[in-house]
Amino acid sequence: MYDNCFGSNGRNGCNILTVHKCQQDKCSFYKSTQELEEDRKKAYLLLAALPPDMQRYISDKYYNGRMPWAKSKCSV
User: Which superkingdom does the taxonomy of this entry point to (predicted)?
Assistant: First the structure.
């Protein structure tokens, strides 16, 4: 089992996918916690580059009105 996977529940299961057992190297969703954080920073940089009205639309639809990309000083 990949204990360093961001989706690992620590019991050979997955918190992300609806599988009963960790698929290990066959899992296409495997990502370390560090890789998850790097990908999130990249996404926030892209969101921050959008026009304000588009950012507001996305924050309302997917982030309950919050804009975490506006607060974080992301650099990759």
Answer: Bacteria
Number of domains in the chain: 2
| Structure tokens belonging to residue 49 | 């580059």
Give the domain extent around 6.
1-31
- CA-to-CA distance for 70 and 48, rounded, in angstroms? 6
Look up the pTM and report it: 0.69
Each residue of 5-36: pLDDT tens digit?
888 888 778 888 877 777 777 888 888 889 99
